[in-house]
């Protein structure tokens, strides 16, 4: 048999054995190194340059034609896999780009990335000390420090890492309900009266969604009016509480927000806490977005009174720029998570193990298998220190103020809020065709069409990514969100220039 035939046969034999789920140097080392090189060069560094596109727009049919998305019966080669990796990266949104300011997450933090890679290489599931000894201890230390930063004495209480802020807010509802009605664990919703909870009309949708999921019902998640700054109206809250009581319902919690999704508003926590004490309600603070400001001596005043809360949601993957996903639920009451959720499965949480089983913390979660989301955040914290996080937060707020002050001086920009509290800056861009037409009867209708047109142009050109939305009686406006501390004042001018370039000559 010719030598090249021998190589073909050997190659086919290796290919046939690739189904085995175990790294083998002879089969995988070259592929892994090439794949990591591709990630480092093309994704981590190549796509973080300001000269790169934020997104290479392609219609669904085009992506389907470029990337073979269907699973196949037989294996493909390593070269083909690497080519697929390159195409997946090419057509994915470049969330690590400095000009991705579209949602409440961004950037690829180098230390967070390495922590994420280490997590995936170790592939742990954090439910018992025996299978995740380092991560079990790491979670307890990080969560204790976060509770101390919130303001709870000595960091006392409890906490867990969750798959996102929505689930964290769901844990708050579950813990509050169990705190007041522990029979719900065994007897279900039949054991409790008609429960109602309260949240701001501008709060994250997850509170209402989780009320549905837990059998409380969306009608029983009562929304409270907000003022012109987006803050919860405390007088309306008390009116709604008393109305619910008079109607025979049983109020049990209030979810306040520290950094609303759109306006970035911080609810007045101290007077809300006063009402919760008066009516014996659980106070939860959704600080998923704004919680990062607690790391800054200059800006933590925005969350004044958060230490009065019974529980807090805080997402490091938002304002602190940890990689997705990294969400925490912190609770002042030490045992409510365990008492409300544990099932004592004997095949996992045996009490006669040879070590202290109080470190088997997984039973207080509703999940069983669970990622070690703590590692990337802990690794970042080690690399930067609390001082580094403080500098990061202060720079975000400085950039936001600079951008706000800059567009106040430029024609075509009209602010939604003159003095936003967080790093969300909201504005309309008014093209030339609408300037001076503010009193026309169809002005609002025409202005509503501007943001989608600008968004289409920016996405198809890939120059930046900024979201827009309507809110209440406000027509579509842009919301630019700053959470990437690699940005500077020159970038703030770039954003303004780019809106002008994309939008000034639009006709609606």
Task: Write a structural description.
- This protein is of the alpha/beta class.
- The chain has 3 domains: 1-89, Aspartate Aminotransferase, domain 1, CATH 3.90.1150; 125-371, Aspartate Aminotransferase, domain 2, CATH 3.40.640.10; 384-504, Aspartate Aminotransferase, domain 1 (Alpha-Beta Complex).
- It has 16 helices and 11 strands.
- The protein has helices at 3-16, 25-45, 60-66, 78-91, 110-122, 133-150, 165-180, 184-187, 206-213, 234-246, 269-279, 336-341, 374-408, 443-448, 450-461, 489-503, and strands at residues 158-162, 195-200, 221-224, 250-257, 282-286, 311-314, 327-331, 413-415, 424-429, 467-471, 474-481.
- The strands form 2 sheets. It has a 7-stranded mixed beta sheet, with helices on both faces.
- Helix 2 packs parallel to helix 4 (78-91), helix 5 (110-122) runs antiparallel to helix 13 and helix 13 packs across helix 16.
- The protein starts with a helix and ends in a 5-residue tail after the last helix.
- The model has no long low-confidence stretch (mean pLDDT 94).
